[in-house]
Design a protein that fits this description.
Length: 278
C-alpha cells in the first residue's frame, strides 16, 4: 500500500458517475449526499491501487470488469455466520422438512437457493440441516450465489473457517462435515467433499434477471440480510424473480429484521420472516 498517497476528493461529476454504477448494479439510491460514505469506503482501496483521483479509478473500472465485484464488496456488508438466525434452521428441521417429507409424493429431491450467500456459512448450514433431516437417500442441491467473487471463492473451497467461525456448529456435525487443517499455529476447518458436493457456488447479481437459467425452480429460497441498503424498487424486482422461481407452496426466508409488505398478496406469512408462495 502507498501509505503516503492521498486521494483528491471526487468532483460532483465523478460522484454522479460512481452513483450511476452503484445504483444500477446494487439497486441503491445513492446521490451526492452519500459522497462522504462512498469516499470513506473507497479512499483506502484507491490508494492501494496507486491512484490519486477518482477519475483514474473510473477509467480503471472501464478497463477492468473484475474490479466491479471488488467495488460492490466495498460498498456492501458480507457479515455472516454458521446457523445465523438459528430459529430459521430450527423451523426447517422441526416443521417444514417433516411436513415436506409427508406431502412430497414425487422423487426424494429438494432444491434450495442461498441468494447472497457471502463466504458459504449460510448454504453450508442449510446443506447440513437438509442432509441431517432428510437422510442420505435424498437428492439435495443448494445453489449459493453472491455478487462478491472473493467471498464465493472462499465458499467454493469450503473455507477454511476459523475456530471462532465454526463455534456455532454442534461438535458432532463439525466432525462429520469439516476436516481440521493446520495453518501455522492455528487449526482451521474446511468443509469436506461430502458437504461441498451439496452446494454449487455461482457469481450472480440478484438484479440481473438473466443471470440464472430460466428453468431453475426451487423449493426454498434463503435471502437473508441482503436487502439492507436496497431501494424498494430493486427489492420488488428481486422478490418477483423469487416468486416465479419457487414451486407452488415453496418457502422464502428473509433476515429476521426484514419483512414483506403486508399488502403483497402473493405470499402467506407463516413464521418469523418466513413466507410461503400462494
Ligand atoms: C450481510 S451478507 C448476508 C449473508 C447471509 N445471507 C446471511 O444472512 O448470513 C449480504 C450478502 O449479500 C450480497 N449481496 C448484496 N447485494 C447483492 C446483489 N445485488 N446480488 C447478489 N448478492 C448481493 C453481499 O455481497 C453479501 O455477501
Amino acid at each position: 500500500m502507498n501509505k503516503g498517497t492521498s486521494i483528491l476528493p471526487p468532483s460532483d461529476q465523478e460522484i454522479n458517475e460512481l452513483c450511476k454504477i452503484i445504483n444500477t448494479n446494487l439497486g441503491f439510491k445513492y446521490d451526492h449526499q452519500k459522497k462522504y460514505l462512498i469516499v470513506s469506503r473507497l479512499d483506502k482501496h484507491l490508494a492501494q491501487l496507486g491512484f490519486t483521483t477518482y477519475r483514474q479509478y473510473l477509467e480503471y473500472l472501464q478497463t477492468e470488469p473484475e474490479e466491479h465485484s471488488i467495488l460492490f464488496s466495498l460498498l456492501t456488508t458480507n457479515v455472516t455466520s454458521f446457523f445465523r438466525e438459528a430459529i430459521h434452521f430450527q423451523y426447517l428441521k422441526k416443521v417444514l422438512l417433516p411436513h415436506y417429507r409427508k406431502v412430497n409424493t414425487g422423487p426424494k429431491k429438494i432444491r434450495a437457493w442461498s441468494a447472497g450467500c457471502s463466504s458459504g456459512e449460510e448454504p453450508y448450514s442449510l446443506a447440513i440441516t437438509l442432509r441431517e433431516s432428510l437422510g442420505a437417500d435424498w437428492d439435495i442441491m443448494i445453489l449459493a450465489t453472491d455478487i462478491s467473487a472473493q467471498k464465493l471463492t472462499m465458499g467454493s473451497k469450503g473455507g477454511p473457517y476459523t475456530r471462532e467461525q465454526v463455534a456455532m456448529i454442534p461438535p458432532h456435525l463439525l466432525s462429520k462435515y469439516f476436516s481440521p487443517e493446520k495453518h501455522k499455529e492455528e487449526t482451521l476447518y474446511r468443509a469436506t467433499p461430502l458437504l461441498r458436493q451439496l452446494v454449487a457456488f455461482q457469481l450472480v447479481n440478484l438484479l440481473d434477471q438473466q443471470a440464472l437459467p430460466q428453468h431453475i425452480r426451487l423449493n426454498l429460497i434463503f435471502c437473508r440480510n441482503v436487502f439492507i441498503y436496497m431501494a424498494e424498487e430493486a427489492k420488488n424486482q428481486i422478490l418477483s424473480q423469487f416468486y416465479s422461481r419457487l414451486y407452488p407452496n415453496g418457502y422464502l426466508f428473509l433476515g429476521l429484521s426484514e419483512s414483506l409488505n403486508s399488502s403483497d398478496s402473493r405470499w402467506n406469512s407463516i413464521g418469523k420472516s418466513i413466507y410461503q408462495k400462494k
